[in-house]
Every structure is written in C-alpha cells, then in structure tokens.
Design brief:
single chain, alpha+beta, ten-stranded mixed sheet, four-stranded antiparallel sheet, 22% strand
Length: 345
C-alpha cells in the first residue's frame, strides 16, 4: 500500500513535469445555461492562485494563456480586486485548445501527472463487500454527475443503507465516509477538469470575471443582522457571492422571510474601456442599495456549502437582484469582456 507521503511525492513529480512543459511552450463553443452548482466544474469558481507578478493586466492575456500554469488566474490590478481565469470564457478555452494542439508536450505532461494517481490504491466498502480501485478512478467518478449523487451523496441524496466507506490504508481499514471528502484535493481535481476542457468534452461558460470586492446584506432592516458577502464572480446572468462561514449562509437561506437590503458596488454598473477605470471606481467605495424579498431569494437563489471548508457560495440572477438596473449591469459586463477581445485580436 502506498502511504500518503508517497502519494504526494508521486503526484508532485508528475505535476512539476507538467508545469515545466507549460513554460516551454476563435470560435465560441456553446455556453452553459444558468449557473448550476451540481456542475462539477464549479470547482473553478474557487481558484485564485495568481500567476507571476510580472504577468498582470489584460495586455498580458496572450502570455498568460501560453505559459502560465493552468490553475493560475490573471490579476488585472495590483490589489487583485479583479482577476480572470481562462476556463471562465468559451473563447479563451478554445484558444487554450489551439495552444495545446500546437504544443502536445504540455498536454502529455498533464496526462502523465494525472496517470500517476493510477498507482495509488484505495479501498471502497459497502454492505456488498470491499473493492480495490485507484485514486485516479475516484476522481474520474466524481466528474460524472450521476456518480456524484449515487456514490458521494452530493446534495444530500445518499442513502445511509447504501453509504460507501473509504480507506487508503488497506482492506481492513480504518474507514471513513467517502462522502466526507477527506480524500479530495481541489487542486488535483482542478487538473482533471482542465484536461476535460482541453479535450473539448464539456460545455463552455459565458464570460465570467472574478472579483474580490465586498457587499453588505442587511436582514430584517437591522444593523445587527448585517452580513458581509464578497462579490466573487460577475457574469451577464448574475452574481456569485461568497460568505466566510456556513453560519452566514444558513442565516441567508433560512433568515430572510422579510425583505433584505443589499448594498452593491456602484462600480459594476458602469461600462468601461479599461480595468483601471473600474478599479478606480471600486476604490471610491460607492454603493447602491437594492431590495430583494425573502420569496425571491428562496426561489431564485442557488446555494452551495463548500465541502471541507467554511467558505460558502450563492448565486443570484441579475434581474432578480437589480430589477430595472439589470440592463446597466449587463452592459457593464459586456464592456469588461471587450477588454480581452481587444487584446486577443
């Protein structure tokens, strides 16, 4: 049996080879529909590893695509208030495929890194007995939406009588719940996701821009019920928010029987020719208040409690939150997309 330390050594050897090959080295696909947390590729929404400090701003987009590690993001300003990941736009996904087609060694190194996980045996135990599989197969299974529900109990749909236990030690255990996700590493899983994107096996996303800007949610019109929520990602369809604790997420889900007031950054309602203009507006700290009813929040909110961590996310449609200002917001997002289109011509 391979120990946990040996497992990391085996995988990191392959990963280092993959990153080394990356440094040597336009047509739009179909956009996915509304934001859906049952989509395993939502893992991309929590990746914020910056590429090198010298590589920043929209003008660095081509260098970022061709030489930065696949898991890294491109910061658009020194404070990382705005950032972009190539997998969050169908156009840059296609460009990455073309880059990898011209440099097969890069994809080969990624395949080699992931294949190292086939040498790691894991044991799955159910009421029917115990089977031996590999860590590679476990990650591949997690990519399948059907298996995510039946094997891993995603969305709370597992059956205790059929629950599967996991061990990396041996057939005799000790075992833990497979759905407990203690075996899961989001960075390793991210590489499986990137591989699928580069091979063209998944629907691509509408343009999304990452942000690190605060908003405030006031529940029941009481300052004691204020919740800080980071504006984590912007798209034409709506906004992905992040809260730092599961307690805050629970308060939002269960505590909004009355209206909630959301103070949202004013900067994201202005079309702009450059990211510098938006960052300058963000730094002014101006906000606009919006009211959302508890019924709207329960009906249109999409919620995710982050497995293995305190941070949680929720998505709200632009039209639900902004009402008659949604057009201004959508126009602003289109202008942000133009920053990259201009540099990629």
């Amino acid at each position: 049996m391979t120990s946990g330390c040996q497992f990391l050594n085996v995988f990191m050897e392959g990963l280092m080879a993959f990153d080394a090959s990356a440094t040597r080295s336009s047509r739009n696909a179909v956009d996915s529909s509304d934001f859906d947390f049952s989509d395993p590729f939502a893992i991309l929404d929590n990746m914020k590893v910056p590429c090198s400090a010298s590589m920043s701003g929209t003008k660095a987009i081509r260098e970022y695509l061709s030489s930065a590690p696949l898991e890294s993001v491109l910061n658009l300003d020194p404070g990382a208030k705005l950032y972009f990941h190539w997998a969050n736009w169908s156009h840059t996904c296609q460009l990455q495929r073309e880059i990898h087609a011209g440099n097969p060694a890069r994809l080969d190194a990624l395949e080699k890194a992931l294949s190292s996980l086939k040498r790691i045996e894991v044991y799955l135990k159910s009421s029917r007995g115990t089977i031996v599989t590999s860590l590679h197969e476990l990650y591949e299974s997690y990519l399948d939406p059907r298996l995510r529900v039946s094997l891993f109990g995603i969305n709370g749909q597992h059956n205790n009588e059929r629950e599967i236990l996991f061990s990396e030690v041996g057939e005799a255990g000790p075992f833990t719940r497979l759905a407990g996700m203690k075996w899961f590493d989001k960075n390793i899983y991210g590489l499986f996701v990137f591989r699928k994107i580069l091979l063209g096996f998944v629907p691509q996303r509408q343009f999304r821009l990452g942000t690190n800007v605060d908003s405030t949610w006031w529940l029941h019109s009481s300052p004691l019920d204020a919740i800080k929520a980071t504006v984590h990602q912007l798209s034409q369809k709506g906004i992905l928010f992040k809260v730092e604790s599961r307690c805050d997420l629970s308060r939002l889900i269960h505590g909004t029987k009355e209206d909630a007031i959301v103070h949202f950054p004013k900067a994201f309602f202005s079309a702009s020719a450059s990211s510098k203009q938006i960052v300058s507006q963000i730094e002014k700290g101006e906000e606009l208040p919006f009211k959302i009813t508890g019924e709207e929040l329960q009906k249109d909110g999409v919620w995710l409690s982050n497995a293995g961590g305190e941070q949680s996310f929720f998505f709200i449609k632009a039209e639900t939150l902004f009402k008659d200002r949604s057009f201004d917001y959508e126009r602003a997002i289109l202008s942000y997309q133009e920053w990259f289109i201009k540099e990629l011509k």
